[in-house]
Amino acid sequence: MTAFHMESGSLADGRQILYFNTAPDAGRGGFADKRDLGGRVSAGEIRYDVLRDEWVAVSAGRSDRPTLPVACPLCPSHGDELTEVPAPDYEVAVFENRFPSFGGFDAPGLPAPTEIPDGMETAVPAAGRCEVVCFSDDHDSSLVELSPERVALVVRALAQRTAELSARGDIAQVFCFENRGVEIGVTLHHPHGQIYGYPYVTPQTRKHLAAAKRHKETTGRDLFDDIIASERRGPRVIAENDHWIAFTPYAARWPFEVQIHPKARFADLAELPEEYIDAFAPLYLEVLKRCDGAFPGQQMPYMAGWHQAPVGEGREFGRLRLELVSIRRGAGKVKFLASSESVMGGWVHDLGPEASADILKGAL
Amino acid sequence: MTAFHMESGSLADGRQILYFNTAPDAGRGGFADKRDLGGRVSAGEIRYDVLRDEWVAVSAGRSDRPTLPVACPLCPSHGDELTEVPAPDYEVAVFENRFPSFGGFDAPGLPAPTEIPDGMETAVPAAGRCEVVCFSDDHDSSLVELSPERVALVVRALAQRTAELSARGDIAQVFCFENRGVEIGVTLHHPHGQIYGYPYVTPQTRKHLAAAKRHKETTGRDLFDDIIASERRGPRVIAENDHWIAFTPYAARWPFEVQIHPKARFADLAELPEEYIDAFAPLYLEVLKRCDGAFPGQQMPYMAGWHQAPVGEGREFGRLRLELVSIRRGAGKVKFLASSESVMGGWVHDLGPEASADILKGAL
Fold this sequence. Notes:
By secondary structure, chain A is α+β, with helices and mostly antiparallel strands.
């Protein structure tokens, strides 16, 4: 088990920054942010879509965010090069996003209403919180190149953030994720992830909760237990150890898609025992290496996110697992989501889930 | 009113081709396809996703489809240049897709089961039908450059296809759409659209039906009537005439998003009166010109599709309208769907729907 030590600091515009350190008293929290950032960016509002029964965030301030800036804002600050991280070095750092999709300084502390609104136009201020998670102070690294100990420290930081954000009262669901690769529009190459504290339960989670609830009522069993048992017997297992299993699901949508489940039931990262975190790190690194090895010389662009139970509702049916998906469909080829997927939600898997899993299984 | 005359032919591998002509006895159906295409490509299967309660198509044969081939297969055949269209010219031509996502020659004539399957792995052969719709025999044209009469002929062809596919018995929903632009992965630049005859009711349509049903039960009113009445009073109307209204919706997801509704209730294109088709064409051309004018010198990449009521269920709550969405978010910039949208279904509108609508309103 690797303990961690957390230090807190603040940025020039009042945003919070947290350092997750392996050693006590690292003294990183004491460095001042010497920039003049002006006022904080407000997140805007969330609007109710009457046609889909879903909330959509409107965040016009984000249009001003930088596109591949010359100086990396996620590197540590050095001399006159002042960044989002005032300390001169760090292991894992987490700070509030300067251009948040949700939350911000002037949002009230209430999540979206859960009842269906009357009327055709309903909006509420976008409560919630958006954070940036830096995995390393080495700009040229990548999550897949880090040590298992560092990956475990990242997961511990995400667990701490999940616990704290869940207790705020204005967040309905915590989502920790990483976007990687210019092919999916990543604007900062420094290794990092993000956390969205949504003020509503997301549409995908609502689907999963409904399916798990129905399965429990129909069969008396946990849906995820049944999925894991079925996939373990099947041809699409990518990696496995005592505590975790990684597989391409039977009805995969993306050309490459891996679900990583703990073999016991946990609602979220905050519930995950230390030994599960330690066992996750090497397994995840293996999966990432298989992804990068699928098409030699071509990093796999991916989106990877932790599904967690919502904070306040459906907690007994939500279950922690990681989902990694990629638009890579071949050497030098990406899948574009066109009208069928984007307008109707009708997906077509061109490779076939077994062929896709076989590529990952043969990639190391 | 413009009548049309339909001629039927067949391609070398047995697929059907239809010509929609303004003049009778054009004689296009009689041209033989002289190619040696070998056997037909089978569409594969659809798999049930237990976690989302949705069907997903697996169509491995599509991986072989051409990427920007040198000779355009949608141009008319001339001399030794043999294409998918045997006739030497055409107005509007529709043929079965050689690389179908659904259907194909060996699929049985049954749609997906509507009850929730038992078990973790359920698949059925992919019934349904995929068609290609060529808007013009001029390779270098684009829908926005065609005459209102030609656009109306295209819509009449789609209406005929909707009626015929709805009567087959193996199709649950007919979706007519156009993908336009290399930015969204279009591999053939010849102006064309597609038709998917899905063997299941798509996830988006299920959401819309549920919302319309609940609205009717709660208020006694038609949801779409209320949406149109609300949007007509609002700041996001892009274009309007006696029979149609085009607006950016209040809770838009995409940087540019336009819904085009007929002002009366029709379940699908097959129900649309002639005068509505004639009135649609100039309005749609205006909307497309506004899209292309939004960022001068840059064609707007878009996905445009007709929402139609399903064939067999929820017909009283489904309602015809066109949805056009674009990933363009600025001059030379596109929006990428990353983890929040792709994994969780959580959308963030960066421009703001009113600012987006203002750009289209000022674009001509």
